[in-house]
Amino acid sequence: MRKLITTALALFTLLCLSTVAYAAAPIKIGGLFAVTGPASFLGEPERNTAQMVVDEINKAGGIKGRKIELITYDTVGDTTKAVQLANKLIKNDKVVAIIGPSTTGDSMAIIPVVEKAGIPLISCAAGSKITEPVKKWVFKTAQNDGLAVARIYEQLKKEKKTKVAILTVSDGFGSSGREQLKAQAKVYGIQILSDDTYGPKDTDMTAQLTKIRGSQAQAVICWGTNPGPAVVARNAKQLGLKIPLYMSHGVSSKKFIVLAGDAADGIRLPSGKVLVADLLPKNDKQKASLLSFIKDYQNHYKAEGDHFGGHAWDAVMLLKGAIERGGDTPAGIRNALETTRNFAGIGGVFNFSPRDHAGLTKEAFTLVEVRKKDWVLVK
Amino acid sequence: MKSDKLKFFAFCLAVLLAPLPLSGSYLTNVLVFVGVNSILALGLNLLLGFAGQISLGQAAFFGLGAYGSGVLTSVYAFNPWVAMVVVALAVAAFAFAIGFPVLRLKGHYLAMATLGVGVIANIAFNETVDLTGGPSGLSGIPNLAIGSFTFDTDLKNYYLVWGFALVMILLSLNLVNSRFGRGLRAIHDSEVAARVMGVNARLMKVQVFTLSAFISAIAGSLYCHVMTFISPTSFGFNTSVELLTMIVIGGFGSVYGSILGALLLTMLPEILRTFNDYDIIVYGLLLVVMTIYMPGGLVKGVPALFRRLTPKKAKEGANA
Lengths: 379, 320
Prior knowledge:
The complex is a heterodimer of chains A (379) and B (320).
Chain A: H1 2-17, E1 27-33, H2 40-59, E2 68-74, H3 79-92, E3 97-99, H4 104-117, E4 121-123, E5 138-140, H5 145-158, E6 163-169, H6 172-185, E7 191-198, H7 206-213, E8 219-223, H8 228-239, E9 245-246, H9 254-260, E10 268-271, H10 287-301, H11 307-326, H12 330-338, E11 343-344, E12 349-350, E13 366-371, E14 374-377
Parallel strand pairs in A: 1-2, 1-3, 3-4, 4-5, 6-7, 6-8, 8-9
Antiparallel strand pairs in A: 10-13, 11-12, 13-14
Helix pairs in contact in A: 2-11, 3-4, 5-6, 8-9, 11-12
Chain B: H1 2-17, H2 27-50, H3 58-74, H4 80-102, H5 107-127, H6 129-132, E1 138-139, E2 145-146, E3 149-150, H7 154-176, H8 179-189, H9 191-196, H10 201-227, E4 229-230, H11 237-250, H12 255-271, H13 279-293, H14 298-309, H15 311-319
Antiparallel strand pairs in B: 1-4, 2-3
């Protein structure tokens, strides 16, 4: 009996250790995404999208006849784990480039690792610190928070509104947004009358909104990711807050409308164009990419492709272009990435240069409004 | 006594040689973090395993050490070694100060109070944005260096961190076999009896709490210089619980048990990665099985298991 168990265990171990052997040497790229944990709303669509794009590329014959192999690991949104896994991708799996991680914290944590190893990284996180100052090997596809802020302030200026209240969540996304909101206010001649924060797990923001109601603010800007902003929307409706409510691109998915229900009506937010792809004019450069992304995602996962998955789509496609032009070495890929011009992806039209590794302008954002549980463009 | 020394030397040798077969592998990098976790687990085991005082706030001292060193070296350009000592002493002083009121509590109340310390510290790391960088983290922390020799590779960091760990282990071994250590175990078994026997239980508990905080702060400083980037998520409630799990799995009141627990809990997720999406389930199952069948931790459970699996040989040995 004991012998049987031992044999079974040994066989089981062997099975676990065996890896699939490939006939031709594929080009290995690594992916680090927070598929589980608090940032899974980013990591899961990103991992799915990256896998989908790689499958599509391989189905179409690969890059110059060579297949791509995507090796992904889950960082759980834990910086220590992200560093270990980045090391694993570089040293054990010998990848030529890494896409991800999903969060700004994970990205900042692995930057020293990739810089030292000389492996190009295309981050899918939004924090502007990732590419400012420019690091030799680090690029990013998610739009900088600053661009979203600029888009909102521009609209306010157009409507001649100069007094705002800001309400931000106390996590990485919120604090970066708050920094940008405060920094750019002066440029647009906007005065921040009240500056409040809420915790990522708070379930009631009535106190902050009551304070804002009592101020002279002409608009409220809330910066957070689901579910906080949905609570803000509901509380604002309950309080009968009359002034317009702006949200960040952190909630630009259908899920926000579901969570906020009727309270979502009239809320405006800057968003990547993926939400309103079919409403875009025909001459929009991104339209073709957007429609193909949405169609593929629907086919593969029977779900709507979102903004976050788009970051991974851009990362893989940018990498594909770079490998086509620069070869399959890390240095070649890096140099080719840096010379990428006019790449119309999901997040926007990318133009990388030695001085700009984020590559987007505020045109990457479009202002949308929720009307009757759907998105419409704000003119 | 002699076998203790032998055991320690054997362990030193194992630590010295461990990275050789792994040359160039990312596992060296994982072993660096095993080292950091070992120091942390050791600190907690002194407090919980020996003195019987629970702490759910170890991550606070770990984080204070990391942020202290991180901020002093990256913002104020302190020498990292000076910063490490200054911060560890400051954290120890802080622990000493809060130790008196906190350690008057017992059992669940002590757990709640230390939990509170942990939560407050985490909120502080998140909210003092100007100093700590807030939730998006603090970057630009330098590596440790001696003269022009910089600890900038995994292998160098491995020997750095494990060098510290070995010193801590030696210190702990001596401590638990001293008068102080016997006093702690007396408090663990019965505080009233210990006091009757003339052990100054109140002071001793605070002293071991302070020592535990000091050790955790050193681990924090090492962690921040190895990572060169820190963010508050690494110093949350989860970290405290994970440390607790390490010593439960490794072995309460055992110096080597702490190391074993840290090794297992840090390496296990890496080994289980072959199970892909099911790794968490297997991980949970293993922990449950280990706590049920090895209540004394691995350090006692593994030899017992070994004896049970080789009954014949043992008998033969007895006959011969």
